[in-house]
Amino acid sequence: MEVVVFVFSLLDCCALIFLSVYFIITLSDLECDYINARSCCSKLNKWVIPELVGHAIVTVLMLVSLHWFIFLLNLPVATWNIYRNTQSRAAEVTHEGSHDQARVPFALFLHVSL
């Protein structure tokens, strides 16, 4: 059973790394004016929820399989992803998301480094 857990975790982490690289490439295309902001948002927004679900699945899977150390390593990043997603949804509703823009580079750095 442990082999299946770690193989699934490895595949999921590879997919999350691929998504992080895709996000960085798309954002660099936006910065260089190869694409406009609307198409950048449409490309990236459809991958936010699958990224959140993928990371949450690995975190819960490590909790269920009693791998505490790996669970504790994944928990802060999964919590940050859930917080970031719920706050951005609230900012869309209230249209007051401009004050959160200073935290985005740190969040991207944290996500890519883990």
Q: Number of helical runs?
A: 5
What percent strand?
A: under 5%
What general outline do the C-alpha atoms trace?
Answer: elongated
Strand tally, please?
A: 0
Q: Mean pLDDT across all residues, rounded?
A: 81
Low-confidence stretches: 93-102
Which structural class fits the helix and strand makeup? mainly alpha
Helix content: over 70%
Give a structural overview.
It comes from Ceratotherium simum simum. It is found in: Membrane. This is Protein cornichon homolog 4 isoform X2. Belongs to the cornichon family. InterPro entries: Cornichon. This protein is mostly helical. Helix content is about 80%, strand content about 0%. It has helices at about 1-30, 35-45, 50-65, 70-95, 105-114. Helix 1 (about 1-30) runs antiparallel to helix 2 (about 35-45), helix 1 packs antiparallel against helix 3 and helix 3 (about 50-65) runs antiparallel to helix 4. The chain is elongated and about 45 Å long. Mean pLDDT is about 80; it is low at about 95-100.
Short characterization:
With 114 residues, the protein is mostly helical. It contains five helices and no strands. Its main location: membrane.
Q: How are the secondary structure elements laid out?
A:
Blueprint: H1 2-31, H2 37-45, H3 48-64, H4 68-94, H5 104-113
List keywords for this structure.
transmembrane; single chain; elongated; 114 residues; Cornichon; mainly alpha; Protein cornichon homolog 4 isoform X2
